[in-house]
Automatic annotation (TrEMBL):
The keyword Chaperone does not apply. Pathway: Carbohydrate degradation; pentose phosphate pathway; D-ribose 5-phosphate from D-ribulose 5-phosphate (non-oxidative stage): step 1/1. Belongs to the ribose 5-phosphate isomerase family. The gene is rpiA. Keywords: Isomerase. The keyword Isomerase applies. The active site is at E105 (proton acceptor). It comes from Ollibium composti. Signal peptide: none annotated. This is Ribose-5-phosphate isomerase A.
Length: 229
């Protein structure tokens, strides 16, 4: 099976955790999209759920395939969030934000009783950081924020290019109206320290380190499906 097929298998396995009447956070990315399409089939078959999407892109897909939606304002407490990830470590700490939705993804995950990550096995790492860390930043003072991020990283012994994410010739803009800086620091041995240091920078809106949010990961590989707790 290729990576796309494995993502579908992980998404299919996650459906077993979705019960009738659940309030669901629904992630962003290709794995989450596979989940939405499979969920829509269940909804068509009579399953009742209400979904809170983590991006405009996911909202549009849910509307297209018939998954009923709410907002986090109307449904501020969720039973379960199903979302993908860019990296997953053995403690279920994650790097997310490859699709640019990390802020809403983190808010929705934090409002959920449980978060289940769905992924193909290529996302499993020993230590986070091979995937560049997405950092969502305010447009104002971009250069100053960039410098502050580099300084905070250096204090922790980390360094590497910090690149403004682009879409063609223009900066990528998140659903919240912010920019994303992708920080290639390499291995991040102390994720909590980096998380705290980034949160202390005023121009940083949020970052893609998800620590203590995921309750389980359903990982599909060539040897089958594994659930990591
Ligand atoms: C979006 C995300 C995605 O979950 C992450 O990028 C994984 O994407 P995919 O399922 O396409 O591999 O964090 O912001």
């Amino acid at each position: 099976m290729n990576a796309s097929e494995l993502k579908v298998e992980a998404a299919r396995a996650a459906l077993a955790h979705v019960g009738d009447g659940m309030r669901l956070g629904i992630g962003t990315g290709s794995t989450a999209e596979a989940f939405v399409r499979l969920l829509a089939e269940k909804v068509a078959g009579g399953l009742t759920v209400i979904g809170v999407p983590t991006s405009e892109r996911t909202a549009a897909l849910c509307l297209e395939v018939g998954v009923p939606l709410s907002t986090l304002d109307d449904t501020p407490e969720l039973d379960l969030t199903i979302d993908g990830a860019d990296e997953i470590d053995p403690d279920l700490s994650l790097i997310k934000g490859g699709g640019g939705a990390l802020l809403r993804e983190k808010i929705v995950a934090a409002a959920s009783h449980r978060m289940i990550v769905i992924a193909d096995a290529s996302k499993i790492v020993d230590t986070l950081g091979r995937f560049p860390l997405p950092i969502e930043v305010n447009k104002f003072g971009l250069r100053a924020t960039e410098l502050a991020i580099a300084a905070a990283a250096e204090n922790l012994g980390l360094s590497g290019p910090v690149a403004l994410r682009m879409t063609g010739a223009a900066p990528f803009v998140t659903d919240g109206g912010h920019f994303i800086l992708d920080a290639s620091f390499g291995r991040i041995p102390d994720t909590r320290a980096l998380s705290n240091a980034l949160h202390a920078i005023p121009g940083v809106v949020e970052h893609g380190l998800f620590i203590g949010l995921a309750s389980a990961a359903i990982v599909a590989g060539s040897d089958g499906i594994k659930t990591v707790h």
